[in-house]
Structures are given as structure tokens and as C-alpha cells.
């Protein structure tokens, strides 16, 4: 079993328990993709699998799981709410490379500079964030341009040992997801036209940024080629604009 399979299994089990889950369509060719990398006895198969669900309040719950042996394992797990809820995004990036682990967990705010929004969605999870600081200290610099998309409860850490990932990171991932689902439980639909336009604009701003700056782009291109990679990013991982175009909805931005 790979390092992050238990994370994915526990997340799906929790989602099934808490939500009315339905499958989310995964475009053909993206459910599973493999490639051989390296040469001779160093050759490894890299397997990327996709999982996706939806629920009445959540437009897309999706995971991309990359398994490439001990030195390459990635789980990118993201939840996008429907556009008539002001819920933040849930984001989990769990990355293992030859140099160690890169862990990012957050409920990424739609409106980071709005004190009311922060009081509603960040203040309640700060105690969870703080409870893990002892074992999961701040991971250091990350891009300045990314800062508007993260909350003050952004858990960003670089543990060296697998054991820390299997224990403290696993517990933090579960606690953040549980807290997020509590927010989902209480979420009420937004009906005010201006608020709906603001939510759509904030979601598109985030998705465009993530699609443009996806750190996995180079890795996927190396394994699977440019055409597959761009279609995977825009047609599945960050597909809101594509879905809106298919539905004939005009973006407000």
C-alpha cells in the first residue's frame, strides 16, 4: 500500500458517512494513466489514478493519486463547492519526492480579506491548526502570489520521516476534513445576486490561478505528454470554466 492510499481511503469513508455522495464524471482517459520512467534496473511504473464525487452542496470532490515508487508519491485532494454556497475550498496536497515530504492542508477562503468571512470559516479551525504546530512546524517560504489563496490556518510543513506523515499528517488531514464537513452541514444557499456574482468571480480566480500554476504540470508532461496534461488540468482537475461553457453559462468576469 502506498503512503497516501490510507488518506484517500479514510477521506472517501468519511465522505460516504457524512454526505449524499454521487459519482462525478471523469472524462475518458483520465481514470487511470501509467508510464514507464527511468532506465534499466531503475525503471519504475508511474500510475496516476483519478477519483471524483459530488453532493448536493459540493460541485466536485476529486483526487489525483500518483504512485511512482518510494521516491514519488502524490495525493492532490480538493473539494469545490457549488457556486451558490460561500464555502471555502478544501485543499490537501500531499507530496513525497526524493528530498522528503511537502504537505499543504487548508480551507482556502473565497474572501480572505473579509473579516466576517474569516470569523465564519477560519477562526473555528485555528485551534486545530495550532494543535499540530508542535509536530508539523511551518515549512518555510512559498510563493508570494499564492498567499491570497490561503487562510491563516494554512498547514504547510516539510516532515522528513514517513512516520510523521503516517501519524500527525494523517490525523491533521482527518481533522481538517471533518471540520470542513461540519461547515458543509451548516451551509445555507446564497440567493443575493451580488453575492452570487462575487462567489463565482472568487471561484474562477482561484481555479485560473491553480490551473496556470499547477506544480504538477511539469511532472505530468514528462510522464504523459503535453496534450494529455493540459486536458487533464483544464478538463478534470480545474474544470469549472469548461463546465460553465458546456452549460452555456456566461462568466461574470
From TrEMBL:
InterPro entries documented for this protein: Ferredoxin-dep_bilin_Rdtase (IPR009249), Phycoerythrobilin_Fdx_Rdtase (IPR022827)
Entry EC no(s): 1.3.7.3
Catalysed transformations (reactions): (3Z)-phycoerythrobilin + oxidized 2[4Fe-4S]-[ferredoxin] = 15,16-dihydrobiliverdin + reduced 2[4Fe-4S]-[ferredoxin] + 2 H(+)
Keywords per UniProt: Oxidoreductase
Keyword Oxidoreductase applies: yes
GO MF term set: cobalt ion binding; phycoerythrobilin:ferredoxin oxidoreductase activity
A Pfam entry, by short name: Fe_bilin_red
Region forming the signal peptide: none
GO biological process: phytochromobilin biosynthetic process
Family of this protein: Belongs to the HY2 family.
Functional description taken from the UniProt entry: Catalyzes the two-electron reduction of the C2 and C3(1) diene system of 15,16-dihydrobiliverdin.
PANTHER family referenced in this protein's UniProt entry, alphabetically: PHYTOCHROMOBILIN:FERREDOXIN OXIDOREDUCTASE, CHLOROPLASTIC
Protein's UniProt name: Phycoerythrobilin:ferredoxin oxidoreductase
Gene: pebB
Amino acid at each position: 500500500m502506498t503512503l497516501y492510499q490510507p488518506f484517500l481511503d479514510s477521506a472517501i469513508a468519511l465522505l460516504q458517512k457524512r454526505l449524499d455522495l454521487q459519482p462525478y464524471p471523469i472524462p475518458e482517459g483520465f481514470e487511470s494513466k501509467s508510464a514507464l520512467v527511468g532506465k534499466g534496473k531503475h525503471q519504475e511504473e508511474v500510475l496516476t489514478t483519478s477519483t471524483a464525487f459530488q453532493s448536493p452542496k459540493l460541485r466536485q470532490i476529486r483526487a489525483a493519486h500518483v504512485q511512482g515508487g518510494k521516491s514519488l508519491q502524490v495525493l492532490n485532494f480538493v473539494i469545490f463547492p457549488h457556486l451558490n454556497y460561500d464555502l471555502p475550498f478544501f485543499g490537501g496536497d500531499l507530496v513525497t519526492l526524493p528530498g522528503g515530504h511537502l504537505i499543504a492542508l487548508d480551507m482556502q477562503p473565497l474572501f480572505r480579506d473579509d473579516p466576517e468571512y474569516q470569523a465564519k470559516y477560519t477562526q473555528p479551525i485555528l485551534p486545530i491548526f495550532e494543535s499540530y504546530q508542535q509536530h508539523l512546524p511551518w515549512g518555510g517560504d512559498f510563493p508570494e502570489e499564492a498567499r491570497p489563496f490561503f487562510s491563516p490556518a494554512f498547514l504547510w510543513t516539510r516532515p522528513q520521516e514517513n512516520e510523521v506523515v503516517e501519524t500527525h499528517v494523517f490525523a491533521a488531514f482527518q481533522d481538517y476534513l471533518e471540520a470542513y464537513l461540519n461547515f458543509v452541514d451548516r451551509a445555507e444557499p446564497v440567493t443575493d445576486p451580488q453575492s452570487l456574482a462575487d462567489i463565482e468571480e472568487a471561484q474562477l480566480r482561484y481555479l485560473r490561478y491553480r490551473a496556470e500554476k499547477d506544480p504538477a504540470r511539469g511532472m505530468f508532461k514528462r510522464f504523459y505528454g503535453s496534450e494529455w496534461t493540459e486536458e487533464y488540468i483544464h478538463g478534470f482537475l480545474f474544470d469549472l470554466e469548461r463546465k460553465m461553457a458546456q452549460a452555456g453559462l456566461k462568466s461574470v468576469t
